[in-house]
Design goal:
Elements (H helix, E strand, L loop, with lengths): L1 H19 L16 E6 L7 E5 L5 E5 L5 H7 E5 L8 E6 L4 E6 L8 E6 L15 E7 L12 H17 L18 E3 H16 L5 H18 L10 E3 L5 E2 L7 E2 H17 L6 H16 L15 E4 L6 H4 E4 L7 H9 L7 H8 L10 E2 L2 E2 L32 H18 L16 E4 L2 E4 L11 H5 L6 H14 L1 H4 E2 L2 E2 L3 E2 L4 E2 L5 H15 L2 H7 L2 H9 L5
Parallel strand pairs: 2-8
Antiparallel strand pairs: 1-3, 3-6, 4-7, 5-6, 7-8, 9-10, 10-11, 12-13, 13-14, 15-16, 17-18, 19-20, 21-22
Helix pairs in contact: 3-4, 3-15, 4-6, 4-15, 5-7, 6-7, 9-10, 9-17
Length: about 550
């Protein structure tokens, strides 16, 4: 037995020695069958393949599972301006046994620009294996913190914003009707509500010395004469859009007739003009007063309660339809921008609505109340988180919320708290939209990329509209002025133009509108003036009819 064991170990040892003495593989070590990215960082941080707030001289590090062929790297790695398509000159340095590359631009990159970094399928390892998965990453460079324009006093800046924005209504007003074009690409399409805002802007222009009183009276007389002689009216109310040359109605979606809310915005501006241009010894001003009164007295507010059959106002009258629901569309219920329609309806000396129409139609017998707290701020009225900020602008360009209360709300608290909630949401930024901050805030209806959106905390697509914060200046003066300065000094090279601030922008997508809209430009001029002097509030609230209407509906003011 002992001899058998010795024999077994001897045979095992002989086999091991024999195996160890065999010649090595003549073809060398086995080759890798794949070559791919192992890690990717920008300025030492991994963030996937989208990077925001990248400095102007970034270091991009790409590491691989095998050493890289340098020639193929030079030909396969690129940094491209995503907007212009220009290729950015870069330098490559190899590390970690040539398995990592540091890539840097040769010159500082421009601020607020999107770049695409790519590693194409032509990249090879030193053993000539091509990369299995090409690489693509997006880099968005940071805001250039240097001031784009010389620093001026706050008062001078407000003057500048008002004067520049007025040009939209004054220089760009329709050459025939004098009315406000709906947007800067609208041609003959003029807007009824936007014209009301533009008239209020012209009053500001006179007060601030941007235009003369006589020129403003001439322009507004042109507008009212066009409205009276050229435009179709339905029981005194105008359509949403009008052809500025002919006066013909232009359909707004399905609305092909009257729009009582747009008519209200127009009337808000006209009543302010009547109160401001009040020198009856001047023929043009006296004629303007008479024309405005004729438009005002012709509006049959009761007819917009479905011909006095409903305890609510209806937004649109559509004469080409047959069913009641199509003829009368959209019951006007709060909380939104349309409070002014009920105030004017109650204030009419010719066709006044009853108090029950306000309580039932607008207030829904109190259902417009909210009372919940958002970001530790109580919201008196409206949807959760408040909705878009234009809810607090359009009606309050003339109505003074600082002194206004009724059974449903203190409107000073409503306008301020809604604005603060909107701002607090942008600071909290739950959707991680790049660029939102305590200086860059304001969600409201505006243009967006390839469309239009009523932006709000519950409908946030990453787009900021300057009008939201600027037009809230009477409610949040410190916060709104800080935002205005950020828009002008930090982003002015991107969003300040011919008619003031462009309509909207997205730092997340590095999109900057080229558009200007009457309903966004107008509130900026008017609400800044209400912050500075209370001018339009004083004019509108001085109308004896308005005071009577507010009292009728149970307001204190």
């Amino acid at each position: 037995m002992k001899n058998l064991i010795i024999l077994f170990f001897s045979l095992t040892l002989w086999g091991a020695c024999k195996k160890g003495s065999e010649s090595p593989n003549p073809t060398g070590p086995s080759q890798p069958t794949s070559f791919d990215l192992s890690s990717f960082k920008v300025n030492g941080t991994y963030g996937g393949f989208i990077y925001y707030n990248v400095n102007m001289t970034p270091t991009i590090q790409a590491s691989f599972f095998a050493p890289i062929d340098e020639t193929s790297a030079i030909n396969s790695i690129s940094l491209i301006d995503a907007i212009s398509g220009a290729t950015i000159p870069i330098s490559l340095s190899f590390q970690n046994g040539d398995s990592s590359i540091n890539i840097r631009p040769n010159n500082a990159l421009p601020a607020l620009t999107k770049f695409t970094f790519t590693v194409s399928g032509g990249l090879e390892s030193k053993s000539k294996v091509k990369i299995q998965s090409p690489v693509s990453a997006s880099l968005y460079t940071e805001i250039d913190s240097t001031a784009k324009f010389p620093q001026i006093s706050d008062s001078a800046l407000l003057d500048l914003v008002q004067k520049q924005t007025l040009k939209y209504f004054w220089d760009f007003g329709h050459p025939i009707s004098g009315m406000a074009r709906e947007r800067n690409t609208s041609g003959d399409v003029v807007t009824t509500g936007g014209t009301g805002f533009g008239i209020m802007a012209m009053i500001v222009g006179v007060k601030r010395g941007f235009i003369t009183r006589s020129d403003a009276v001439t322009r507004i007389n042109t507008i009212v004469n066009f409205l009276i002689t050229k435009c179709t009216r339905w029981h005194g109310a105008f359509s949403h859009w009008i052809n500025g040359t002919t006066g013909a109605t232009i359909a707004f979606g399905n609305n092909n007739g009257a729009d009582i809310v747009e008519t209200s915005f127009l009337m808000e501006g006209l009543l302010c003009a009547r109160q401001y241009f009040n020198n009856i010894a001047v023929a043009n001003e006296n004629a303007l007063k008479d024309s405005i009164n004729s438009i005002w007295n012709a509006i049959d507010w009761n007819w917009f309660t479905q011909n006095d059959t409903q305890n609510a106002l209806y937004w649109q009258y559509n004469p080409s339809y047959t069913s009641t629901n199509d003829i009368w569309s959209i019951k006007i219920s709060g909380w939104n921008e349309a409070l002014i329609a009920y105030i004017l309806g109650a204030s009419s000396s010719t066709h006044s609505i009853a108090e029950i129409v306000y309580d039932n139609g607008w207030a829904n017998m109190g259902a417009l109340k909210n009372g919940n707290t958002f970001y530790n701020i109580m919201l008196p009225l409206g949807p959760n988180l408040g909705g878009p900020l234009f809810f607090e602008h359009y009606s309050f360009m003339g109505l003074n919320p600082e002194i206004l209360k009724d059974a449903y709300a203190d409107y000073n608290l409503q306008t301020k708290n809604h604005t603060l909630i909107n701002r607090a949401y942008c600071i909290a930024n739950p959707n991680n939209n790049y660029g939102y901050s305590n200086l860059c805030w304001g969600l409201t209806a505006s243009d967006i990329q390839n469309g239009y959106n009523a932006s709000s905390p519950t409908n946030d697509v990453g787009v900021i509209a300057p009008t939201a914060a600027i037009s809230s200046m009477p409610y949040t003066p410190t916060e709104s002025l800080a935002a205005l300065k950020f828009f002008y000094y930090q982003l002015g090279d991107k969003i300040w133009g011919q008619y003031g601030f462009v309509d909207a922008f997205s730092l997340k997508d590095l999109w900057f509108a080229s558009s200007y809209l009457a309903i966004d430009q107008g509130p900026e001029i008017v609400m800044v003036e209400n912050y500075r002097s209370g001018l339009l509030w004083s004019l509108f609230m001085s109308c004896p009819e308005i005071r009577q209407g507010l009292t009728k509906l149970g307001f204190t003011y």
